[in-house]
Each structure stands twice: as C-alpha cells, then as structure tokens.
Amino acid sequence: MRGQPLLSTVIHREKMAAAPVMMPYFGQQISSKSDLVPDWTRQEVSTGTTIMAVEYDGGVVIGADSRTTTGAYIANRVTDKLTRIHNKIYCCRSGSAADTQAIAEIVAYQLGFHSIELDEPPLVETAANLFRASCYRYREELTAGILVAGWDKRKGGQVYSVPIGGMLVRQPVSVGGSGSTYIYGFMDANYKPGMNKEQCMELTAAALSLAMERDGSSGGVVRLASISEEGVERRVILGNQLPKFSTH
Amino acid sequence: IMFEETGPEWLSEEVKTGTTIIAIEFDGGVVLGSDSRVSAGASVVNRVMNKLSPLHDKIYCALSGSAADAQTIAEIVNYQLDVHSIEIGEDPQVRSAATLVRNISYKYKEELSAHLIVAGWDRRDGGQVFATMKGLLTRQPFAVGGSGSSYVYGFVDAEYRRGMRKEECQQFVVNTLSLAMNRDGSSGGVAYIVTIDEHGTEEKVVLGNQLPTFFDQ
C-alpha cells in the first residue's frame, strides 16, 4: 500500500516521479494539513530517478543516480540503485523504493532457486521475465520501472526494459525514471551501434549528469557498473568529477 | 441506453500546439525554430502550422501551449508594437516586445496557458532571446519550450557552446527539432526556421524527409 501516513488523514499522491513526465511537474507546493509533522513524513519514499543501461559487444554498462526522495526531502543521497540479482545479472530500479526492493528480492530468490535446478548460470531473459511476471500481475498495486541487464553465455550482453505496467522489451540502449525524459534526445543523437565498453561508460556518465542537472528528483553521485564474461566492475563518479557542460 | 450523437472526440478537445520550439542567439542575430503539428486530443488538426509568428520586422515569437491563447497574444503584441514603434519613431527593441508579451502572460496567468519565446535583433543589443513562461521575463543564450522540449534538454545542454556561428546555430536548431519530433507525439510535421540579423529576416522550411536522422530504436 502506498503512502503510509502518520496522521489519520490519508493523502493520495499521484506517483509522478517514476513515469516519464511530459511537462515539468511543479506540484507538491501545498501547505501541510498539519504543522505538527513535516510534509515529507506523509510522502511515499520514491527513487525518483535516472537509470540507464547500454549493450556493447561482450557485455552491458548500467548506470544510475543516487537520490531517494520523500517528497522534497532527500532521504538518501548515496543510494545504490544497481541491485544484484545474480552473479552477472543486475537491475536498475526506479519508482517506489519499497516496491522495487521487494520485487528485486523476490526475483533474486526465484532466480537463485532456478539456477540451482538448472545447474548452470541463469539467462538474462529469464530474469527479465520473472520481473515482468510480478510487475504485470500486480500492476495495479505497484509503481516500479526496472531495467534488467547482464551477460550470459547464450546471447552475450542484453538489456531488457520492464516499465510501469509490466511490459517487456529488449533494447540495445534504454533509459528510465523521471529524469529519463530529458535525455532521450541526447541518447538518440549520441548512441551508435558498435560502441565499446569505455565509450558506453562515457555516454552513460554524460547522459546521467545531464539528467541529474535538469531533474529535481535525480542527483548525488553517478554509479556505474559493467558486466561481461570477465565479471562485474563497479565505479562511482563523485559530483565534482562529473562531466561538465557549458550552461554551468 | 442513450443514442446521443456526441460527434468525434476531437471536436470537443481543446486545440493545443503541443510542440517543440527553440530560439538561440549568435553573434549578430538569432535563429528560431519550431515544428508544425497542432493537435486536438489524438487528432492532428493542422500538420503544417507555422508557429513562428512575426511581432515586428526583426522580432519574432515562437508559440506553444494553447493555440488560441498563443495566437491571440502574438496578435495583440504585434499591434501594440506597431503603435509603440510609431511613437518612438524607430524600430522597437526586442526587450520591449518581450515585456509586452510578459505583461499579458502575467496579468492573465490564471486564464491563459501559452508560453511564448521572443527573439529578434535590434541595433542596441544585437541578437537576443527572451523566455516569458507563466509571466516571467528572462534573457537567455538559448531557450526551448513546448512539450517536446523535455526530451531535448539533455541534448541542448550537451551540445550548446558559446560563440557559435549562424550556420552552426541553424544546424543546432534543426537537429534539436528533429530529435524532439521523433520522441514527442505532440510534435511533428516539418521544421520552420527563421534567421534574423541586421541584414534582414530569412524564413526557411525543412520538409520531413530532409530532416536529419538519428538512432531509431
């Protein structure tokens, strides 16, 4: 259930942060119904966010910002939204923090069990389908936009997008979260098929920085990870090291 | 059961220029650009509308939001600028045009839902771009607006550099419009480009098949 309030008045909030928004969202400038308790205690915790995943020949690069908000309060400014599902399968989470954490834990359990039955590493497509199954079945109750990315022996690096509503689609490059709207144009202009790992890392870091600059619900540091046959390599880019652009 | 003929949905939907507009300043002038789609709900009621409206010889504005509101503001300011320029006996300043737009947007901000970007050239300050959303007035090196602008904020932030020449600005505008039109359902059609400098005003149309293409997946 969303929005567990501390007071008896239930305030139903439109979950805007997870779905890409067309117009800048100036909402939530209301005064509190009560001055006893700050506004943010009655807001749902959300990873209003920017996440991105890119395939390259031999693996994938995934990235995310690090901000978790409760209304206007930043509950966690160093969140890790890149969650391990299996050795070489990760997911990027956006939307409700509670929903996505719960789903990720469930899928990790299901996938671990399945992998033991199979006696071999699971496929990325399997993980993506497990996410989709939960997100679609409980679509009315959940607010979760997830990117599933990883490497397996059969198809190499793969990125699957499971947006709100529970559809599943494989894409060479995908972005998600509230900040993603601002970088569709940048991504279309700068992604080319056949980029190598370093180029994908730079593209992801640049795209996330741009989105973090424009989206109030995204910010903090940039977390990157690359997954390939060799394994998983994680990186953090701190605020002062982010790529800079001329309007700064 | 009611057998009422309510007619097609789009007759009752408000007509909006869900849109992409952009204006950018270069040394010696400005370039404005817009798409050409006007939608009423899911229907495209005009696929070739020019949203770059002249306020004066060397001052144009780009329209977005409600088509009726935006057009009316532009027409009123066009009239007010005519009167003003006769009173002062010379071409009006871009800032004056932007101020007139801002005054209307601010006074009627509850009733109107239109955002105009005003850009032009005058003798005093050269090329200038002003944003007037919801009644503010701010001069910027470049401005984007309309529903399609959300998708290209990242691109314009990354690509804009100070000191671009006229041709680079025109290419920048065309690229931005193309990217936005590909992602925004409310933007599309052809691209209109207007370039204003001290020598005059040049209007150009870039047809759909001549627009630059990008990664399409």
From TrEMBL, chain A:
A single GO cellular-component term on record: nucleus
A biological process from GO: proteolysis involved in protein catabolic process
Transmembrane intervals: none
Localisation: Cytoplasm; Nucleus
Gene Ontology MF annotations: threonine-type endopeptidase activity
Active site (record annotation): T49
Keywords of the record: Cytoplasm, Hydrolase, Immunity, Nucleus, Protease, Proteasome, Threonine protease, Zymogen
Top-level taxon: Eukaryota
Signal peptide per UniProt: none
Matching InterPro entries: Ntn_hydrolases_N, Pept_T1A_subB, Proteasome_bsu_CS, Proteasome_sua/b, Proteasome_suB-type
Catalytic activity: Cleavage of peptide bonds with very broad specificity
Primary localisation category: cytoplasm
Assembly: The 26S proteasome consists of a 20S proteasome core and two 19S regulatory subunits. The 20S proteasome core is composed of 28 subunits that are arranged in four stacked rings, resulting in a barrel-shaped structure. The two end rings are each formed by seven alpha subunits, and the two central rings are each formed by seven beta subunits. The catalytic chamber with the active sites is on the inside of the barrel. Component of the immunoproteasome, where it displaces the equivalent housekeeping subunit PSMB6. Component of the proteasome complex.
Family listed: Belongs to the peptidase T1B family.
Role, per record: Component of the proteasome, a multicatalytic proteinase complex which is characterized by its ability to cleave peptides with Arg, Phe, Tyr, Leu, and Glu adjacent to the leaving group at neutral or slightly basic pH. The proteasome has an ATP-dependent proteolytic activity.
Annotated protein name in UniProt: Proteasome subunit beta
Species: Oreochromis niloticus (Nile tilapia)
Automatic annotation (TrEMBL), chain B:
Residues of the signal peptide: none
Record GO cellular component, one term: nucleus
Catalysis: reaction(s): Cleavage of peptide bonds with very broad specificity
Annotated compartments: Cytoplasm; Nucleus
An example Gene Ontology biological process: cellular response to lipopolysaccharide
UniProt keyword annotations, A-Z: Cytoplasm, Hydrolase, Immunity, Nucleus, Protease, Proteasome, Threonine protease, Zymogen
Major subcellular location class: cytoplasm
GO molecular function: threonine-type endopeptidase activity
Family listed: Belongs to the peptidase T1B family.
Function description: Component of the proteasome, a multicatalytic proteinase complex which is characterized by its ability to cleave peptides with Arg, Phe, Tyr, Leu, and Glu adjacent to the leaving group at neutral or slightly basic pH. The proteasome has an ATP-dependent proteolytic activity.
Listed name of the protein: Proteasome subunit beta
